[in-house]
Write a structure and sequence with these properties.
Helices cover 27% and strands 25% of the residues. It is an alpha/beta fold and 404 residues long. It has 2 domains: 208 residues, FAD/NAD(P)-binding domain (3-Layer(bba) Sandwich), CATH 3.50.50; 129 residues, FAD/NAD(P)-binding domain (3-Layer(bba) Sandwich). The C terminus is likely disordered. Pfam families: Pyr_redox_2 (PF07992).
Length: 404
């Protein structure tokens, strides 16, 4: 009987899970023995790390030809329930009708969503760059601002959250506003961050570069202040300070997909499932990968982050190991010793660090050039060619080094 591997999600980890599983199946000449299916609302990879940009063209490349080349079946649908004891999932198909799918091994790669706490007015009045449709909504809003009556609030943008996404969004915003209002327009871009430092999770290494770049662009910071309320005219922050703004963008953190909560197992504060080195959830037939997995990335106590840098390699490992499990082959433990960061800080500016202590190796235009290569080449899907899939989906190969 044909075995079934089901992958949930076509993000970075889901796509690479499918390709890695197909790679091992091909190398073992087991195409007839195992079927690989992947389920998501659309057969596209959303380039989520770039959604802070103004030009959103090409941010959802099709995976149809790639999956066809790999022999992966795509199912249009949205998974609603996982039944681990029954080895089945329930989903709504393209017509909204309930369906069921039985699996032998499940790879949960359903990603994460923006963390939206119960702050008054956040859901109703804040924009985001978390999903493509949300980034498109923000862009339409910004382009329509000149039609409003001139005011300081109209020309003020507040970015809530000074982490990776908040920094990139804020650094990009001055150029976006100049393109909309004209080069002589006055505007304010303000980052509100509840921590005492910008980029609290990035550490002290790149912080001086980030702070100087934001200052040079006229971006101001409100540090040590939590957002208390958002309305149609701005935000109120801790201490009662009021910032009148026509645009409020929420970027503060992420949480694992709600589907992770349906899988029995230990979870961290982000809702991610604790996994074994093979990315298996306990002794079950479920593998968790990408943003739903809390996985040790090395033997030094570091864990994979909710980023495409880790999701791509987590996906390769999860897909390979699910297929190896079906075929009775040994697993390859997930291992990603190298860690880097590369932030875009607006046009022709950026900062690149290496190591978990984030030592700055490049800044300014050289870092921006590297970020451009990452954003436009390295994170995009491979060619629809089995030879390339075999080469790039190998979990035992070393991750790409982000070096010029």
């Amino acid at each position: 009987m044909t075995k079934q591997i089901l992958i949930v999600g076509t993000g970075f980890s889901g796509m690479w899970s499918a390709l890695a599983a197909a790679r091992l199946r091909h190398l073992q000449n087991q195409q007839e023995a195992v079927e690989i299916s992947i389920i998501s609302p659309q057969p596209n990879l959303h380039i989520r790390p770039r959604l802070y940009e103004a030009d959103l063209a090409g941010m959802a490349p099709s995976l149809v030809d790639l999956f066809a080349a790999a022999g992966v079946r795509h199912i249009v649908g949205a998974v609603e329930q996982i039944h681990p004891q029954d080895h089945a999932v329930n989903y709504l198909d393209a017509d909204g009708k309930p369906q069921s799918f039985s699996y032998d091994k499940l790879v949960l790669a359903s990603g994460s969503t923006l963390f939206r706490p119960a702050i008054p007015g956040l859901k109703e009045h804040a924009f985001s760059v978390d999903q493509l449709n949300e980034a498109e909504e923000l862009q339409r809003h910004l382009q329509a601002l000149p039609q409003r009556a001139a005011s300081k609030a109209r020309n003020t943008v507040v970015v809530c959250g000074g982490g990776f996404t908040g920094i990139e969004t804020a650094a990009e915003m001055p150029a976006r506003l100049r393109a909309i209002f004209g080069s002589d327009a006055d505007f304010d871009v303000i980052v509100v961050e509840k921590a005492q430092d910008i980029g609290p999770d990035l550490g002290a290494g790149p912080r001086p570069v980030i702070e100087q770049s934001l200052r040079n662009k006229g971006v101001s910071l409100r540090l040590g202040h939590a957002v208390e309320a958002i309305d149609d005219n701005g935000v109120t922050i801790a201490g009662g300070e009021r910032i009148e703004a026509g645009t409020v963008i929420w970027t503060a953190g992420a949480r694992a997909s709600a589907l992770a909560a349906q899988v029995p197992g230990e979870r961290d504060a982000f809702g991610r499932l604790q996994v074994t080195p093979a990315l298996r959830v306990g002794s079950s037939d479920i593998y968790a990968t990408g943003d739903v997995a809390r996985a040790a990335s090395d033997d030094q106590g570091n864990h994979a982050l909710m980023s495409c840098q880790h999701a791509m390699n987590l996906g390769r490992s999860a897909g390979h190991n699910a297929m190896a499990d079906v075929l009775g082959l040994p697993a390859i433990p997930y291992d990603q010793q190298n860690y880097v960061t590369c932030l875009a800080l607006g046009a022709d500016d950026g900062v690149y660090t290496e190591g978990w202590d984030r030592q700055v190796k490049l800044s300014g235009a050289p870092a921006a050039e590297l970020k451009g290569m990452i954003n436009t080449q390295w994170i995009y899907p491979p060619k629809a060619d089995m030879a390339e899939i075999i080469a790039l989906a190998d979990p035992d190969s070393r991750p790409v080094q982000y070096m010029p």
